[in-house]
């Protein structure tokens, strides 16, 4: 099973590793610098000893006296027990050893000796390590022996062992390792503390989210205290909570409205049945009861069908399954006008169609939406007035411009087609803005008793809005004047269709419709 570490620990361990790595690199740099400084110091001292040794040999006299001065030469080397000296006769005299101060008996490397007139320099030194791992350095140079007119030249081999350097570097290495480890641990603690403090806004956000539930969807996360990197995330969560709250409220309201709508017809059916069963009835009374109950059942059936349609329309899959066709908007309005002609005449109303254009829609859904709007207009229109059914073209809103000659619209390219607008306008009592804004809500009625008597379910306009959403359009309502209300359906523009707008008379054909 994979071990899941918290963000604090992951960041803390990462910071500790980075701090340890940085400390190790810094320690390695310091160690290398210290080692080079020790090496340069020792080299300078060794070169100085070679110069001093040359001067002493110039005053030593004969080789025999040189042997007698061995202790003096050792003292000249500051009593260093790790200094190694060998003085050889020139090759012409056999190269014999005149003096040897080499207690360990280590072989000294025989490099090319420096001429008498050349001063020793760092590049003349050779460095090596003894079999015991002790670092050493040395050089070979010619020196004058004695102060005769023709002095004797001897070969001087000078070397120095540095065991103290090895010990010092070993101790320094351990100190650097310990310091790096301590720095890593300290950095880990500091990083963990800083991260813990830095993540405190997230812990507060976690506490706030834990307090949000079905009964407290109105709570929101605090954005002011959130880090800048998390602020868009917090704002997105708040927006999601707003949508959830709105949807939850709509669901609760829908459930309450549905229960209210179902209770009335069920109570009616129950009451009628109880009254009829209270005593013996005639066959005509039973027939009247059955007819009344059948009407209530049909109303319930229409309500259930409407609710199922609204539920399916909320899924995007239904929009993709539409069988849209290119239709004549004027012909569809004429079909509806002919179907509702008798009902309009009974109520002392008239229907007038105006305009035509090509639009793309699913025929049955379009007819259902138009039927719902027209039946709603006939229900609310003032007797003796005319219900207008209009078709017009409207340029896409993106093409509107503040400049232009008279029209306020920029010239539209030939490939850009206008949108199609269908309007149902009736004269009736004016409605306040708060009522207009809710006309497309489910189960909303402006007059409860009148709608129930008319058999409406309060779902007709909600279905119209759902149908327009499936077509990518919109459904709107506006108060045209003090006594005129217009319901507007906006369809998107066709990709490639030549549309025209002209007046025509209405034709007829029966549609599908539903009471609003």
TrEMBL record:
Its EC number is 2.7.13.3. It comes from the Bacteria. It catalyses: ATP + protein L-histidine = ADP + protein N-phospho-L-histidine. CDD domains: HATPase (cd00075), HisKA (cd00082). It holds the Pfam family HATPase_c. It is found in: Cell inner membrane. The keyword Magnesium does not apply. One of its GO terms (cellular component) is plasma membrane. Keywords: ATP-binding, Cell inner membrane, Cell membrane, Kinase, Membrane, Nucleotide-binding, Phosphoprotein, Transferase, Transmembrane, Transmembrane helix, Two-component regulatory system. InterPro entries: CztS_silS_copS, HAMP_dom, HATPase_C_sf, HATPase_dom, His_kinase_dom, HisK_dim/P_dom, HisK_dim/P_sf, Sig_transdc_His_kin-like_C. The chain crosses the membrane at residues 174-196. One of its GO terms (molecular function) is phosphorelay sensor kinase activity. The keyword Glycosyltransferase does not apply. PANTHER family: SENSOR HISTIDINE KINASE HPRS, SENSOR HISTIDINE KINASE YKOH. Member of a two-component regulatory system. This is Sensor protein. It comes from Roseateles depolymerans.
């Amino acid at each position: 099973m994979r071990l899941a570490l918290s963000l604090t620990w992951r960041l803390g361990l990462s910071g500790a590793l980075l701090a340890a790595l940085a400390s190790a690199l810094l320690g390695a740099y310091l160690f290398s610098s210290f080692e080079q400084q020790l090496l340069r110091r020792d080299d300078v001292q060794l070169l100085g000893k070679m110069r001093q040794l040359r001067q002493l040999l110039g005053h030593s006299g004969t080789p025999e006296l040189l042997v007698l001065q061995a202790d003096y030469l050792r003292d000249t080397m500051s009593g260093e027990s790790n200094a190694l000296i060998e003085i050889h006769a020139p090759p012409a005299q056999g190269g014999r050893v005149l003096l040897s101060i080499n207690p360990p008996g280590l072989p000294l490397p025989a490099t090319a000796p420096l001429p008498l007139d050349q001063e020793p320099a760092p590049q003349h030194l050779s460095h090596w390590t003894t079999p015991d791992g002790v670092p050493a350095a040395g050089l070979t140079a010619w020196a004058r022996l004695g102060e005769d007119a023709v002095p004797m030249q001897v070969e001087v081999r000078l070397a120095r062992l540095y065991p103290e350097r090895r010990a010092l570097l070993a101790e320094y290495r351990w100190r650097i390792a310990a310091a790096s480890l301590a720095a890593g641990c300290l950095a880990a603690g500091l990083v963990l503390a800083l991260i813990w403090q830095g993540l405190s806004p997230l812990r507060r956000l976690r506490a706030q989210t834990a307090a949000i539930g079905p009964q407290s969807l109105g709570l929101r996360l605090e954005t002011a205290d959130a880090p800048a990197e998390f602020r868009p995330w917090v704002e997105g969560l708040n927006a999601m909570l707003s949508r959830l709250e709105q949807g939850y409220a709509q669901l609760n309201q829908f459930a309450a409205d549905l229960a209210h709508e179902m209770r009335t017809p069920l109570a009616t059916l129950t009451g009628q049945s109880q009254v009829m069963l209270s005593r013996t009835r005639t066959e005509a009374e039973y027939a009247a009861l059955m007819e009344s109950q059948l009407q209530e059942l049909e109303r319930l059936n229409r309500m259930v069908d409407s609710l199922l349609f609204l539920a399916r329309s909320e899924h995007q899959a239904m929009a993709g399954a539409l069988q849209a066709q290119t239709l004549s908007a004027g012909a569809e309005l004429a079909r509806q006008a002919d179907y509702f002609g008798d009902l309009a005449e009974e109520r002392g109303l008239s229907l007038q169609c105006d305009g035509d254009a090509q639009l793309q829609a699913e025929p049955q859904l379009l007819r259902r939406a138009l039927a719902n709007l027209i039946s709603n207009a006939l229900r609310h229109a003032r007797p003796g007035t005319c219900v207008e059914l209009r078709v017009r073209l409207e340029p896409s809103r993106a093409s509107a411009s503040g400049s232009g000659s008279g029209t306020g619209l920029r010239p539209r390219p030939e490939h850009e087609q206008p949108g199609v607008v269908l309007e149902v306008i009736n004269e009736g009592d004016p409605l306040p803005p708060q009522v207009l804004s809710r006309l497309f809500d489910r189960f909303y009625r402006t007059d409860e008793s009148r709608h129930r008597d008319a058999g409406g379910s309060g779902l007709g306009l909600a279905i119209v809005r759902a149908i327009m959403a499936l077509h990518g359009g919109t459904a709107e309502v506006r108060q045209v004047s003090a006594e005129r209300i217009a319901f507007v359906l906006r369809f998107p523009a066709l990709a490639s269709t030549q549309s025209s707008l002209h007046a025509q008379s209405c034709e007829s054909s029966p549609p599908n419709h539903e009471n609003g």
